[in-house]
Amino acid sequence: MGAWGLFIAVFLACAVEAVEATTIVLAAGTARDWRSAMTGMIAALGVLALLVAALGPAISALPLTGLRLVVGALLLIFGLQWLRKAILRASGYKAVHDEDEIYRTQLAAAASVPGRRFGSVPDWYGFTLAFKGVLLEGLEVVFIALTFGSNARDIPLAAVAAGCAVAVVAAAGVAVRAPLSRVPENTLKFVVGIMLTGFGTFWGAEGAGAHWPGSDAALLVLLPGIALFALGLAALMRRGRSGRAAAQGSVAPAPQAGPPAPQAGTPAPQAGPPAPQAG
Amino acid sequence: MGRRLRAFLAFAYDFVIGDDWRIAAGVVGGLAVTYAVSRTSVPAWWLLPALLVVLLPVSLWLAIRRR
Questions:
Q1: For residue A17, which of A137, A167, A231, B12 is within the disulfide window of CB 3.0 to 4.6 Å?
Q2: Which of A:140-169 have CB within 8 Å of B?
């Protein structure tokens, strides 16, 4: 994988997670107290930095074959889960990840809890909400950056890509002080799911002892192949859903979705989680 | 302590396994078969892509059926 491939893959994957973390911090800051929310975010970023400092050199020291097997397996599992969710959303079977709705739910939940000072933190609830959100979403950012970076033997570049993604999204969040609902999150998740699945398949198979025809060039076939397959599945499911809805005579407006625009169907109600969700 | 451990295990399960455990099980099984086949003279690179072609539609079908 070239340097640009590594940068783009890590940047996109981390941007998705950063959007979710930003939504939680914005909700904590708006509903509770900005200073506490920012302190919580900075504390979580500090913990994540420590994790990277500790795990980065340790991962670099591992033998490449074993690393590729484990990392490939994890990336493949992550990638297939992301792709599964993205296809379900794109075909209308699952509600699209709605940052506005999540923001509103977080805001309502945060506003209903009485404030409590803890040490120099004016609002402990706002602090912990921002801390947990950034830490949990950040763990995925760290995982993606470390696994991609270690496999490509370029952890610094992966760390720069992850840092750029977090900085861009955080700056946008601070600038608008509102959830980043215009980010086409499902489309991004679709693309990232394809990347994680593709690299996971490639590295996993290599780690298990298989040899790809054409070596690294196999990725140039694997990634578009997975993309076409996933898009085909989404189109097929959308058509099946539209047909079923039409047969029942209850065609409702479709949810706004990712890459292939869905045509019909009623979205399932979005359960806005007070706690951050993975993926 | 027990509650915290359970909460951590639940988080770890959600983080790694996610919504459908069959995907994780299928990937682990696929890698094991790939390893076994790679020890022989038969090419093993095609096994994981073939697994994807089966695993993803099955997981989606099961998700739809539950709705």
A1: A137
A2: 140
